Amino acid sequence: MAGSGCFLLLLAFSAALLLDEATAQVPGFQSWNCGGKENFIDEAGIEWTPDNLFIYGHIAQTNRRSRAKLQYATLRYFPSDNRKYCYSLSVMPGMRYLLRPTFLYGNFDGKNVYPKFQISLGVTYWSTIIISNVNTVEAREMIFLATEPAIHMCLFNATRGRPFISTLELRPFNGSMYSDDLEEQFYVSVSARINFGAVSDAAIRYPDDPFDRIWYSDHSGKPNEVLPMADGIKNLSTDRPIDVGFGENPPQKVMQTAVLGTSGLLSYKLKLHGFAGNGWVISYFAEIEDFGPQRSRKFRVAIPFASIPHTDRPAVNIQENSGGKFRLCEHYSVNVTLNSLLSFEFIELPNSSEGPLLNAMEISKYIEIKRGSPDADVAAKIFSSLRNDDWAQEGGDPCLPVNWSWLLCSSESAPRITSILLSGKNLTGNIPSEFTKLTQLKVLRLDGNSFIGSIPDFTNCQDLKIIHLENNQLTGSIPPSLANLQKLRELYLQNNMLSGKVPIGLFRKNLVLNISGNVELEEGGKNPIALMIVVPFIIVAVLAFYTYIMNKNNRESQNAPSHQSEGQAEPPQREAIAEPSSPVLCAAHRFRFSEMKDATNKFQRKIGSGGFGVVYYGMLKNGREIAVKVLSSNSKHGEEEFLNEVTILSRAHHTNLVELLGYCQEDGKSMLVYEYAPNGNLEEHLAQARTQTWMQRLSIAEGAARGIVYLHTQCSPSIMHRDLKSRNILLDRNFTAKVGDFGLSKPAHDGSTSYRSKHLKGTFGYIDPAYMESERYTDRSDVYSFGVILFEIISGKKAALPLLNGGNLRQVIDSAFEDEYEQDSAWKIARTAQSCVHESREDRPSITDVLREIQQARELERERKTRRISHEEAGPTRHRLRTRFA
Length: 886
Ligand SMILES: *[C@@H]1O[C@H](CO)[C@@H](O)[C@H](O)[C@H]1NC(C)=O
Ligand SMILES: *[C@@H]1O[C@H](CO)[C@@H](O)[C@H](O)[C@H]1NC(C)=O
Ligand SMILES: *[C@@H]1O[C@H](CO)[C@@H](O)[C@H](O)[C@H]1NC(C)=O
Ligand SMILES: *[C@@H]1O[C@H](CO)[C@@H](O)[C@H](O)[C@H]1NC(C)=O
Ligand SMILES: *[C@@H]1O[C@H](CO)[C@@H](O)[C@H](O)[C@H]1NC(C)=O
Ligand SMILES: *[C@@H]1O[C@H](CO)[C@@H](O)[C@H](O)[C@H]1NC(C)=O
Ligand SMILES: *[C@@H]1O[C@H](CO)[C@@H](O)[C@H](O)[C@H]1NC(C)=O
Ligand SMILES: *[C@@H]1O[C@H](CO)[C@@H](O)[C@H](O)[C@H]1NC(C)=O
Known about the structure:
The protein is an alpha+beta fold. It has 4 domains: 1-179, Galactose-binding lectin (Jelly Rolls, Sandwich), CATH 2.60.120; 376-526, Alpha-Beta Horseshoe (Leucine-rich repeat, LRR (right-handed beta-alpha superhelix)), CATH 3.80.10.10; 538-555 and 574-675, Phosphorylase Kinase, domain 1 (2-Layer Sandwich); 684-752 and 762-872, Transferase(Phosphotransferase) domain 1 (Transferase(Phosphotransferase), domain 1). This is non-specific serine/threonine protein kinase.
């Protein structure tokens, strides 16, 4: 018992000693054991730490041989995709470092496919790692001057297997001899570091080399093949101390061995990593033979200076050059062009008594440092504000050597970020303002996230072409600066919670703008007229506000009892429906969902969409054709509109109104069942020019006007349509106009003809600009919309309004008529339409007046037809226009 206790104590003591020694001896070394779980100290006293500073990638064990070092038991590997995976290392600016990643495959994936991939330092391509053996450690070394507090080492471009890494070692230098004028332009990639005349195969490194460089044995065959090419080459070694000076010269142990060309020639071939290219060669010499003053060792160095004649090559006298025996001297060959196979020769001079000697050699390649993207800092800030998802873990420069997966860059040498592609990434918080600093940005996609807050100011991003911000939870108003982006072609803002007015500059021809689904957004400012009439409408607005207050008071006192008595299905916006909804709903027929499914053959034939849902064709069991409007469930206001429409439509019956046959509300689905209008709607008809004659169009106009007259004057309380447009005028089998889509309808209260709403609704191009200004909707607002429809009827063109501002009637009238119309009749309709869209609501006619005008126009046209028949023999009359619009 006593014996074993003593043994344990001893063990603990020696371990503590080792740790102390290690941490004391190796200041500045950073050694990561990739995929490792805990720290350990190796036999040389170097402490290894797990690479968990880098959280991405997968950890694997290698099938390591028992001889291999502990740091090769694990590794970290990455997916084989087109992304890059970067380690970020802290360094001290101004210091020179040696960075060494190593790779031992060890068949970690059990596939025995030797991986091939690339590595980079910063944005600069470094090397291609080609694994060619299961148990060979591939290593790369780079010497660099730190200019920033961090440097990235990245793995990328897997062309075979999976990229992986076993260790990563960072060693600071002290002075350094590796400094030169070019180090801010070039990294130095170490290609060979050879200890000649080595006494064993083992490489020399820390602690013999205080900087932990690896001096490979010249006869180990690895990593460089060193092939002697001359006879009489001998090993030479000494135990005597060698003065290696200070700084980063090779350590004494390396200098204590050498090769000797006893026949007068020392000739080698070397296989080099990473060449062809330009680099440098340093040869190290120290006289380690103890001979008398009569003897000398002089030779020429012949490293490929192709242009220099043999005899002019530099001569070395080791003893003289070093200032004595057992002292180091060196010979540099700077900026030489080398191939992957290097031949060099040292040739004894005639007046030398001894053959040439070589102790060690270092060969490195210049690698030009690439500049990163000027957007890198900004991108890094964006990156750090994103969540730690896999896709955000690439690191390094956003563009080089390969771009991050969520952005695109230009192809310049200092690339700029041109596209941000972050759709549907589940991002939260405010939109990082850093995006606005990407001045070359062309495409910004942030749609389908959960961004909150307001839209930042993109004034600095004048190249922006496409912006997707839809389907977020953005609030605030649309910044007017968006309108100043001259190159902007597409702007998607739908389904946010934006409010305020849409900047007028966004309504331009070459810009696709979608702002739907922003309930609080006022679609004001679209029509220039709206701006021109601001002042007169201040007066109207004051009056309207007065009316509103009066109405509101009335309404509140009316609603109070119903609020108490109705415990169920209260529409969210009570003011939308004057009466309690359920009694009215009882009056409408309720269909079962299964009935609807059968009638529409499982919702097979889609005949329209828009507003708040999709419309399907169906047929009831009794053979009646129906149109089933299925309200989209995601629409917050769908249900409110639904109840509203059922309420209103079920009490409005007229030949010129679409008949509501019933409704269906089950399983959270809401549907409206209408009579089917086999000839589609007026908009389609005008587009397809199917309604060719003026007379036919007049009767459609008359029918529609009749329907509206009914709504305005014969319903009690009267109903305003609120979304009149040619698409909402349906045509039945006989082309009878039927006004439909009352989803936005609201009854006027107590015969009052004005109504103020919190939310502006309607369709662009048809909305009364006065309503946009005052937020007050009157029956004359419907008249305005109807005026726009009349213009479409005359011209056959959508949004025909601008045509009338000073255009002549001939240009306006649909060419489809081919002059087959009564000009007085067309003139009458045009004048009526003009008065309908009068800026001032007071000057607009009532819908009843409009109907009368249309009827008179029809009368004129009827007369013309009769006239034409009777004058047929006199030849067709061509009608010329006499008048221009004022
Ligand atoms: C990726 O590797 C392939 C083959 O090794 C090479 O042709 C290609 O240029 C590399 N791509 C990059 C971006 O370095
Ligand atoms: C680094 O340089 C300092 C003096 O500049 C010297 O005292 C120290 O020994 C050097 N360290 C190594 C490891 O050479
Ligand atoms: C030098 O010594 C090593 C190890 O003893 C041996 O393998 C190698 O062949 C020797 N080289 C020459 C040129 O004799
Ligand atoms: C090396 O020399 C070549 C000309 O042979 C020159 O273009 C290059 O810039 C030089 N490189 C360095 C690192 O001096
Ligand atoms: C040896 O020969 C070289 C050239 O062959 C000459 O430059 C040098 O001065 C000679 N040295 C002596 C000591 O003769
Ligand atoms: C980088 O950009 C290219 C197009 O330039 C794109 O195809 C690729 O998906 C982007 N991402 C990555 C990780 O390469
Ligand atoms: C989005 O993020 C939230 C919390 O951050 C999480 O609960 C949700 O599962 C994520 N959804 C997706 C699709 O990633
Ligand atoms: C606007 O967005 C909504 C919702 O995503 C979509 O239904 C509608 O078709 C879009 N409108 C246009 C003109 O793109």
